[in-house]
Amino acid sequence: MANTNYSLAGAETQKLSVLNKVGIAVFILGVVGLLEIVWTGTLDGKGVKDLKYGEPIILLSFTLMLIGIYLFMKKQFASLRSIHFKTTNLTQKLGLVIGASGFIIMGLAWLSGAMVNPKKQDFWYQMMEYFAANDILMLWLSMGLMGAGILIYTYGTYAKHTAGIKNNHVWFNSLSNGGILGWVAAIVLTLFYVQLYWFSDSLTGLVRLFDPLAYLFTGKAASQWFVYGSVYTFLILFLGFKFIIKYRHNRYQLIRTISVIFFQLVFAYSLPYILEAFVETQGYFGKDMKNVWPLNYYFVESGQLNAMSKSGFSGTFFFFWGIILFLIATPVLTYYVGKRWYCSWVCGCGGLAETAGDSFRQLSSKKESAWKIERWVVHSVMVFVLIMTVAALWPYFSGKEYVIGFATITKTSFYIFISLILVGFGLGFYFLSRKFNNKLLLIAAIITGIVFILLSVGYFTGIKDIFFLESKAIKKTYGFLVGAAFAGVIGVGFYPVLGNRVWCRFGCPMAGYMGLFQRFKSRFRITTNGSQCISCGNCSTYCEQGIDVRAYAQKGENIVRASCVGCGICSAVCPRGVLKLENGPEEGRFEPNPLEVTKDGEKLRM
């Protein structure tokens, strides 16, 4: 018993109780509910609202997932009481009250749309009418109070303290330790995302609240996606400022946080609306220049391809920019600096995770079982997006010549282009699997080979549906399961219970794509100075990707993991300066530190 390892990633922690296993079963049951919708509706081209029991199944599925997570996590901090409220000062409490006031105003607008009955002029009807009549006042009052609340709370938290990371009482706060307040937040976020994707009519009150801002930016009424983008950007901006103050002593954290705020505010939010206003286009296509396939799976939609081909220089630019960004810029940048250039410096998903999700980063599971699930799920999503993309593009390009700018894409040229990509990646996976003796890479090589064979069969026989299913059905299934349920509802809605990087870790195909380069062909690594490690565990605790950083540090080994997003928090929270993010030669990336630290002292590895 004395030798049992009770540490964060120790043997005792890895054990699964009966309750944990029941939780896994209940979560899987929720996933089965979503798959049932796919089987009975999406594959036949039907939407959720077209199914007889579609809406109840959606709500039941995500409810089962939350219950399953609760049973699996089995948090001991289940009390509504929190030491956090006892330790906050007057300025912090004032900030919380002001911020909550703004949230309540927005919440009432949200509820008025969800609860209103147009046939009855009840309280909720009158509330929605009041918000509609005073939308400018209510919008700016709500956003202003929330913003002011965040700033005041930040001042009260960090102003009178010396520079340095303060994670005091993080495990005694009911919101950040997976307690009741955290679960309430998770349920509210989940309901919002479910409404956003499948019940947007119930968001009418909230959408109308943002009409003044929408008219200012776009000249037309707001949609649920304008509201989502505005709130998303607001959170990254203000909570990003809080993050900057918290980590003000760390230059790396300051620069990358300013970077994600800039890219979200300019490239993701403002610039697309400016381009739509001043650049004439024939139809809609995405204008976020940092949104890369495979994360931006809309890039391969026929409607967007048609719009780009008819929109002159701007359409041509975005078409070729998307290809260059995926095939050239992403591999090159990942080779030199790792996937952190995107995940922690540019990406909007990562930006929200690092700012709004900072309070939940310690909730990421460090269990070995979670790591195994991570590997299978994220690579399965990558296979899914590859199949979906080829399935969507082949019928489109094989049926006509596609003219865009100076280029004409024929059936043959498309086949040759995609074949070269598939063969190139397939051979790369194969040779790397031989070099590193890695079965996962061998499986990747086999899958790309199968896709190439099916594409070739389609080219020589004229078959459109080369994966034996209609391309639209595959695309809708991916959009429902991955684009909405995983990236949206689970990816953000489950922040307070699974941690802030659940989508980035388990589901993002872009992160998976870059992760392959980072693991097998990159200069990036986190070096460790094992002789200085005191085994405090801060690095592992605050790793949002669930990596047991301390285990590497204790052994003096370099950390070269596909999942690492290079956020640098492990290095920032280390009190001894053990960890350092570096870009060096490929040689020696996997070699351990020549000095081995043992209970008998340091010795040279032989």
Give the helices and strands, then pairings.
Elements: H1 11-14, H2 18-40, H3 54-73, H4 83-87, H5 90-115, H6 123-133, H7 135-158, H8 180-198, H9 204-209, H10 211-218, H11 224-246, H12 251-278, H13 302-309, H14 312-337, H15 340-343, H16 348-355, H17 368-398, E1 402-404, E2 407-409, H18 411-436, H19 439-461, H20 471-493, H21 495-498, H22 502-506, H23 509-520, E3 524-528, H24 538-541, H25 549-555, H26 569-573, E4 579-583, E5 595-598, E6 601-604
Antiparallel strand pairs: 1-2, 3-4, 5-6
If you had to describe this structure to a student in words, what would you say it looks like?
The longest helix is centred in the middle third of the chain and has 31 residues. The radius of gyration is 25 Å and the shape is globular. It is 63% helix and 4% strand. It has 606 residues and is mainly alpha-helical. Strand 5 and strand 6 form a beta hairpin. It folds into four domains: 55 residues; 241 residues, no CATH class; 141 residues, no CATH class; 82 residues, Alpha-Beta Plaits. The strands form three sheets. A two-stranded antiparallel ribbon has the order 1-2. About 1% of the residues have low confidence. The chain contains 26 helices and six strands.
Which range does the strand content fall in? under 5%
Provide the gyration radius in Å.
Answer: 25 Å
How many runs of DSSP E, i.e. beta strands?
6
> What structural category do the secondary elements indicate?
mainly alpha
Tell me the strand order in the biggest sheet.
Answer: 1-2
| Helical residue percent band | 55-70%
The first-to-last residue Cα distance is: 33 Å
